Amino acid sequence: MKSLNTKIGVFILIAALLFLMIPGEVFASGIGVSARSAILIEQETGRVLYEKDAYTQRRIASITKIMTAILAIESGKMNEKVTVSHNAAGTEGSSLYLKEGEKITLENLVYGLMLRSGNDAAVAIAEEVGGSLEGFVTLMNQKAEEIGMSHTVFMNPHGLDDHENHLSTAYDMAILTQYAMNNETYRIISSTKVHKAPNASEDWDYVWRNKNKLLNLYSDSTGGKTGYTKRAKRTLVSTAERDGMTLIAVTLDAPDDWNDHISMFNWGFSNYELTLLEPKGTLKAVKKEPYKGNVVLSRDLTYPLTKEERNQVKSTIQLVKPPDRDNWDKLGSNEPVGMYFVKLNNETVIKAPIIYESTKKEAKGFWKLFKDLFTIDTGRELNG
Questions:
Q1: pLDDT tens digits along 230-289
Q2: 256 and 281 housed in the same domain
Q3: Calpha distance 152→146 (Å, rounded)
Q4: What residues have CB less than 8 Å from 2, skipping those under 6 apart?
Q5: Are β-strands 273-278 and 301-305 bridged in parallel, bridged antiparallel, or unpaired?
Q6: Considering the chain, what percentage of its residues have pLDDT values greater than 90?
Q7: Which of 271, 288, 316 marks a domain boundary?
Q8: Residue 69: in which H helix or E strand, if any?
Q9: Is residue 3 part of a domain?
Q10: Domain of 283: which CATH number?
């Protein structure tokens, strides 16, 4: 009996030690990921659904090329032909095997950049769009600052480890992807499995197959970008859409990145739903004249929520104090007259302008005379 008790005690001790060795994220969020840094956000609102050390700067390898691609797309030069320079053709690492002097459209370079991760394509794009590598890097960092990537420094267009301070975070790369995914051309290219491009120097065409295996492994996958260098290890950005909700996943230094992303997506889709809180159009909750029937939201207000959170959401409407009745005919149409606030756990998660619509003659600037605010419907619950 003593021997049996001893064995039971040893078993309990081993079980306890194994329990302590399991990462906290598994129990906190129901997800286990191999990555040193990871994040899952919802596309439309940017809400962070899950994160693991997502704000630490790390090397990012070829997911850098998301920035290179979106700058190329926004340049307006996608149909222009680019002459491949000696510098571009000689770029080390993953390559499209472009030849010096070869002419290829910027659009096809972006396809090669995103699907095959061509470093030669990255340099050719940079020289065309930025005038030089240095000029393009300046554009990259300007765009990063513009969209809120506050912990990112770009030093090249491809992500090779040729600079010590070419760094970003999982969160910043999610923000970049959220921005890029608002561009239809980027979405099309990112989701393409196979692309053919004419080869001016040979009698055969280029055929590029996307390195992002999730496009085949995961039925809800809508695109992304892979990355790897010896120092950065495996990096991956991917997107997926289900039931009208798009999620963005990022992992940095992830030995098992495909499964990391599938795990995060499945968890996100299982636990969150993009919930309509207030439809666009006339705000029926407003009963006071002259606003009744005349104030609108220009977009649907939606937010990713768990089932439990749907009963915790509250809205507040704030409107500019209206003029006296004799001056109602001076109200300017299509002017902001207030704000619609949505709170979750006492934190404001949505701010949306309320617009006054009227068929009457516009009186621009009228509302500048009225600075006082009053609040109606404070604390109104929005249950889905």
A1: 999 999 999 999 999 999 999 999 999 999 999 999 999 999 999 999 999 999 999 888
A2: no
A3: 12
A4: none
A5: antiparallel
A6: 76
A7: 271
A8: helix 65-74
A9: no
A10: 2.30.140.30
Residues 294 and 318 in one domain: yes
CA 182/CA 254 separation, integer angstroms: 27
Fill in the amino acid letter for 266.
N
Would residue 369 count as lying in a domain? yes
Same domain, 267 and 287: no
Encoded tokens for 231 = 């120092």
Examine the fold and report which residue of 249, 271, 293 is the final residue of a domain before the chain moves on.
271
Report long-range pairs for 197-202 (Cβ below 8 Å, ≥24 apart): 197/104, 197/105, 197/108, 197/111, 197/112, 198/108, 200/102, 200/103, 200/104, 201/99, 201/102
Q: Are residues 254 and 302 in the same domain?
A: no
Radius of gyration from C-alpha coordinates of the chain: 26
Kindly state whether residues 143 and 211 are assigned to the same domain: yes
Instruction: Indicate whether 119 and 264 sit together in one domain.
Output: yes
Pair 318, 341: CB distance under 8 Å = yes
Q: How many domains does one find in the chain?
A: 2
Largest CA distance in the chain: 95
Residue of 22, 56, 26, 24 lying closest to 260 (CA atoms): 26
Q: Which range marks the domain in which residue 232 is found? A: 24-271
Contact by Cβ (8 Å): 79, 110: no
Residue 6: inside a domain: no
Q: Over the stretch 301-339, which tens digit does the pLDDT of each residue have? A: 999 999 999 999 999 999 988 777 766 666 666 778 899
Helix (H) or strand (E) holding 215: helix 214-217
Calpha distance 345→351 (Å, rounded): 15
Q: Where are the beta strands (DSSP E) in the chain?
A: 37-42, 48-52, 81-83, 103-105, 194-197, 206-209, 221-229, 233-242, 245-252, 273-278, 281-282, 295-297, 301-305, 313-320, 335-344, 347-356, 373-381
Contacts of 134 (CB under 8 A, 6+ apart): none
Q: Residues 40, 166: one domain?
A: yes
Query: Do residues 88 and 197 share a domain?
Result: yes
Q: How many CB atoms lie within 10 A of CB 279?
A: 13
53-62, 164-173, 322-331: least confidently modelled range: 322-331
On whether the CB atoms of residues 82 and 105 are closer than 8 A, the answer is yes
List the one residue out of 246, 336, 238 whose CA is nearest residue 44. 246
Catalytic amino acids? 62, 65, 117
